[in-house]
């Protein structure tokens, strides 16, 4: 009898241990699967972010030891660096002009594709392909198209009696040329997002409006845009964030020229960090860019309460 009780106690004890092990395994298993991603985030994102904000308070010419300078990098940026003001204006010009062009083209194409009965899938693929193409390759192709002497754009303009300008060599046209290329290369992303939003608009709203005699234009303004406003907000925020970080186009097509007319904030960060070897100063510019994007996004999120409709 005693042996039986001891065996029962031993069995219960072993069972309890097994249950604890299973619970521990069940708890740890998800984290073990997440561990590679967590390590990747810490090593390649979190640590560089922390390092960059610390580095912004140092003067580090790469070939020498970092020297703590406090807020000098930020003070220099706003008081003595005239080039930064020009770069900031160039970037805001790029964002302000590209945003409406991108939205108009992407919404227009999305609405058109949403009404196309045949061949819609083919057009979706064709319009989205530039988004999949590497920006470096796209920039090189457009740089060739913009060539003043043998580029296809000026060749076409010549056939209709128009003397094409030096698109990338004239400060008046250089940034606009980059914006046109960027719209062509990127509108497909927003187009797909807007098409998904259009699919969620009930057909009964359009049918009721048609019965009431509303025109297509009225239906677009009174039904499509209000119902599409949450998707439109997402497109605006994402387009603004990506536009502030424009780099490849300026680097490949113009190298920031002519006369720094296409120099952007991210390209200026690259110049200071890897051409002028001022890593601390480049880090300070990067955090100013972060602050600008944060403020603009915050303003957008506050203003959305006035024009975004979720019902």
Would you give an account of this structure?
By secondary structure, the protein is an all-alpha fold. The protein contains 12 helices and 2 strands. It has a two-stranded antiparallel sheet with strand order 1-2. The longest helix is centred in the first third of the chain and has 54 residues, at 2-55. The termini are far apart. The model has no long low-confidence stretch (mean pLDDT 89).
Key features of this structure:
mainly alpha, single chain, 2 domains, 2 strands, MetI-like fold, 311 residues, two-stranded antiparallel ribbon, 78% helix, 12 helices, 1% strand
Can you give me a brief rundown of this structure?
The protein is mostly helical and 311 residues long. Helix content is 78%, strand content 1%.
Strand sequence of the main sheet, in spatial order?
Answer: 1-2
* Strand percent estimate: under 5%
CATH homologous superfamily placement of the largest domain: MetI-like
Assembly annotation: single chain
Helices, strands, pairings?
Layout: H1 2-55, E1 58-59, E2 67-68, H2 72-79, H3 82-115, H4 120-132, H5 135-145, H6 152-159, H7 171-199, H8 203-211, H9 216-244, H10 248-254, H11 265-275, H12 279-307
Antiparallel strand pairs: 1-2
Helix pairs in contact: 3-7, 3-9, 4-7, 5-10, 7-9, 7-10, 9-12, 11-12
